[in-house]
């Protein structure tokens, strides 16, 4: 099966026709071909690259962060609802597949950079290598989310037999669609891509949507966390935090106002936007907050007339669904707690995170007497801090592999009747390869459901 069969469903923009350049003697009239450094920077700055998730923001809907009483499994057909109820197919018919097509489309555009930028008609060799490296980091982010949705959670005992997702690294539509690699090969590929990119990345970039060395280290931290490799996760978290650039905003200085814009906030390591939709907190998540004093509730949510809270509604703040310094700090805290270093783990939770999320006279420290209790405290603070940031589904999958996820329930619009459950160990933690992709690639192995 040729690559154009998978590319057809991705709706690749005209700019991706740069791949035709090597087959043509002259530039086609009216077609934009990336040739200069500025052309390739334009790809990296493109709205689709910076906002990679498409219209539906599906990375939020299967998580236990959210409650949406408008969905009914008996009459459900939307991608949002299918994700919310963990239906096998996000799209239940042969249409352009949401999330899969969105992320592969972004990857296709990034392949324009990796295929062409080293031959750009201007710029220094180091400038070209930097843009190449930035594109590799951006691709790793998209592949991470593809693996999170369309492959099982990583576990070292099954990674050699579970499947990853096709790794497309060319815009040449004459090439065959890559086979699904094993999950181990898929993760090894992303790790190698990032490590290889680091030497050519800058310490500081023109803005926080463009990759740096710390962004690559942050992606490596996230990937190792998802693998349950907490030794390597801590190693790369330390590299991020050791750069001296990590900041956590003190929310108490913004009481009564809005937070700094994401593209200028010092606590955003690497920015990836998504449509700023409104989400209702699940009862289970909401119960983890001090609703009266936690500024994450006061500044990031709105209380509705029915007593529920809505994240993102009536807010000018567009959350970063890329990588925050808070995520990296909490990664390190979790690794420390797992290693039995209670004091160091709680020092991060209390003095780095919580003190910056409460008014000084309302702050209370968390305590733990055992490594297990410290780990619980870290994971609960992680829930509060990273709610609706786009990482929870990956966290749920890795914690389920460790037996740490309870049954997740969806309730009817009466607020109490349970109408769907996601049970521990369920194969519903992995969505199926989309129907349209199957129709073009009949030999592609499918996920167990």
Q: How many beta-strand elements?
A: 8
Examine the coordinates and then state which fold CATH places here, giving the name of the CATH topology of the largest domain: Serine Threonine Protein Phosphatase 5, Tetratricopeptide repeat
* Rg of Cα set: 22 Å
Enumerate the spans where pLDDT stays under 50 for 5 or more consecutive residues.
7-31
Shape descriptor: globular
Number of domains in the coordinates?
2
| Individual helix count | 16
- The arrangement of helices and strands along the chain is HHHEHHHHHHEEHHEEEHHHHEEH
Helix content: 25-40%
Q: What is the correct CATH architecture of the largest domain?
A: Alpha Horseshoe
The order of strands across the largest sheet is 1-3-5-4
The structure class reads mainly alpha
| Spatial separation of the terminal alpha carbons | 25 Å
Strand-residue fraction? Answer: 5-15%
Q: What is the typical, i.e. mean, pLDDT?
A: 91
- CATH class of the largest domain reads Mainly Alpha
Characterize the largest beta sheet: strand count, sense, and whether it forms a barrel.
Answer: 4 strands, antiparallel
Describe the structure.
With 449 residues, the chain is mainly alpha-helical. It has 2 domains: 1-201 and 433-449, Serine Threonine Protein Phosphatase 5, Tetratricopeptide repeat, CATH 1.25.40; 210-270 and 277-317 and 323-388, Alpha Horseshoe (Serine Threonine Protein Phosphatase 5, Tetratricopeptide repeat). Helices cover 39% and strands 6% of the residues. The protein contains 16 helices and 8 strands. The chain has helices spanning 3-8, 37-44, 47-50, 79-84, 100-116, 125-150, 183-197, 213-227, 230-241, 283-286, 295-300, 325-338, 342-353, 371-386, 392-401, 435-440; strands at 66-67, 268-270, 279-281, 301-303, 309-311, 323-324, 408-411, 418-422. Strands 1-3-5-4 form a 4-stranded antiparallel sheet. A two-stranded antiparallel ribbon has the order 2-6. Strands 7-8 form a two-stranded antiparallel sheet. A hairpin with a 5-residue loop joins strand 4 and strand 5 (309-311). The longest helix has 26 residues, at 125-150. The two termini are 25 Å apart.
């Amino acid at each position: 099966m040729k690559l154009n069969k998978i590319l057809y469903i991705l709706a690749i923009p005209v700019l991706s026709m740069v791949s035709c350049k090597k087959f043509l003697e002259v530039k086609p009239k009216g077609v934009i071909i990336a040739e200069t450094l500025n052309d390739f920077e334009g790809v990296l700055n493109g709205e689709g690259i910076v906002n990679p998730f498409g219209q539906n923001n599906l990375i939020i809907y299967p998580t236990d962060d959210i409650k949406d009483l408008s969905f009914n499994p008996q009459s459900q057909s939307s991608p949002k609802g299918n994700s919310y109820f963990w239906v096998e197919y996000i799209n239940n018919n042969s249409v352009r597949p949401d999330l899969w097509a969105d992320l592969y489309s972004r990857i296709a555009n990034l392949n324009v950079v990796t295929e062409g930028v080293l031959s750009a008609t201007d710029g220094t060799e180091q400038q070209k290598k930097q843009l190449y490296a930035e594109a590799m980091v951006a691709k790793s982010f998209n592949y991470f989310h593809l693996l999170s949705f369309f492959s099982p959670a990583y576990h070292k005992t099954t990674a050699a037999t579970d499947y990853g997702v096709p790794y497309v690294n060319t815009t040449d539509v004459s090439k065959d669609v890559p086979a699904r690699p094993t999950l181990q090969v898929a993760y090894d590929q992303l790790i190698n891509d990032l490590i290889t990119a680091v030497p050519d990345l800058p310490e500081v970039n023109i803005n926080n949507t463009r990759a740096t060395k710390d962004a690559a280290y942050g992606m490596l931290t996230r990937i190792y966390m998802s693998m349950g490799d907490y030794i390597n996760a801590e190693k790369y978290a330390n590299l991020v935090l050791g750069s001296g650039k990590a900041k956590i905003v003190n929310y108490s200085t913004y009481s009564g106002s809005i937070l700094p814009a994401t593209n200028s906030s010092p606590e955003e390591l690497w920015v990836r936007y998504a449509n700023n939709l409104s989400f209702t907190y699940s009862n289970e998540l909401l119960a983890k907050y001090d609703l009266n004093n936690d500024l994450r509730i006061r500044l990031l949510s709105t209380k509705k007339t029915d007593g529920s809270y809505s994240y993102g509604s009536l807010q000018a703040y567009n959350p970063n669904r890329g990588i925050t310094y808070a995520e990296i700090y909490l990664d390190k805290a979790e690794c420390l707690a797992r290693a039995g270093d209670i004091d160091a783990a709680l020092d991060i939770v209390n003095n780095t995170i919580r003190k910056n999320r409460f008014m000084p006279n309302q702050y209370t420290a968390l305590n733990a007497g055992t490594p297990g209790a410290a780990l619980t405290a870290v994971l609960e603070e992680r829930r509060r801090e990273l709610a609706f940031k786009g990482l929870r589904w990956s966290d749920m999958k890795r914690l389920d592999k460790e037996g740490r996820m309870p049954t997740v329930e969806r309730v009817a619009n009466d607020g109490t009747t349970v109408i769907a459950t996601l049970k521990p160990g369920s194969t519903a933690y992995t969505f199926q390869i989309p129907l349209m992709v199957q129709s073009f690639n009949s030999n592609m192995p499918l996920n167990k459901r």
